[in-house]
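input
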Amino acid sequence: MPGHLDLGPTRRPDLPNVLLITVDHWTADLLRVAGHPAIKTPTLDRLARDGIRFTQFYSSCPVCIPARRSLMTGTTPRMHGDRVYLDRLPMPDLPTLAECFSQAGYQTWAAGKLHVYPQRNRIGFDDVVLLEEGRYQFGVVDDYQIWLGEQGLVGREFDHGLSNNSYETRPWHLPEEAHGTVWTTNQMIRLIQRLDPTRPALLYLSYAYPHPPLVPLASYLDLYRDVEIPEPVWGDWSRDAAAAARDGAAPAADTALQLLGRAAAGYSDDDIRQARRAFYAQCTLIDHQLRRVIGSLREHGWLDNTIIAFTADHGDMLFDHGMVAKRSFYQNAAHIPLILSGPMLARLAPGIGETSDRLGCLEDLMPTLLDLCELPIPDSVEGISLFSAEPRALVYGEISDDLCATRMVTDGRHKLIYYPCGNRLQLFDVVADPRDERDLFAAATAGAAAGDMALGSVLRRLTQELMDALYGDDRDWIRGGELVGFQAPVALPADRNYGLSGQRGGHWPPPPPQNG
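output
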């Protein structure tokens, strides 16, 4: 089993290289090797078959910025300070993944999306070639936008007219090399070409897609022209909640569900099929582009000594249960892929060519990579290496502080979701029911009352684990040793979206920075 070695200031070119790949909005089951009936992911399928695919890996705060803080510091939202999406909160004063590798003599390079503040904070990397999705409000022009200007395409990245938070779709409008996925790949290939052969390397390849806008290359939409696109999944609980909301009869306990469903409203069945097709196309473009990166590692002599890791910050509901995007703990939003692969992994870890149901979450990836490379793990890290002797028993998740506040705990078999607004609990068996179709809470409550102790015991145990994990003002949701939550409002806040979910406009000249 990998151990820990205090390397001090020495350099060891024999140490493993690491290629860490992250994507944005990619659910764990969006892989053909995971059984998806439509998605085309031949590269990732190959990496999974030649490596280890972890089937119970979660985002403990499924929204972009908090998830990336956990990934890069190995800490929980309680430690790193964000469970909401605080886009002007500086990174915490904690050792980062890149800093740990740099201190061990690694060259550390990143290409793509960091999603930190300030935007040019390299969080310990030697250099970052940045793509930040047109966030001019922070006063930074990223490297992608600079490149567009050099190609005579200045300010045109959002001429397609679609939002980063909606699910309309159309083909990409600029040349193929100007698509963010292709551009990010090209930057990583250039970094590989510039690596110092006398030092090991940590490479971070961070794609901003398949996150909307849904603007795949037309040739990738064509790949799915004749593919049957699966319909969204509904459960009895989600159908009932949607029907009650339509009839104006939703109970107070459904307040969070109503609010989470708003972003998916207004799309026709055809809109949903088109959105899913475009989403799959954006995934497949990433999959194919990864071949170019792996080929560059091979041609430059780096591949045989490289560990490849693939994961996501969170998933996307993609209209399952009448929802889109993230910010929930249903499987599509919080259950994410993790593949560890590469020739070097086969020499370091057991289980190659297998799947692992070992429970894990994003804060576990930093200590896992440090462990595999025999580097010290900082005391600040709360995650657990996926190759440690003692596996993780539970994952606790938290997202939001408002009417949609949600807390979750899972042991890898059962998952308990808690909405304090209206004091609603849901219980799912994620092994037998991997799409959250059957809420077992009522059955567990009734079973316990009738003397059926099995499911009732699970509910009591996970409820206690969840209460034990609550902290700060969240403790006000407990009274007399029981969850009580807080009262739902009489009327929901108005659903007015004049900004069209963060719609971008023309970007030349750049929009002025915004304060707050």
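quick obs: The chain has 15 helices and 14 strands.
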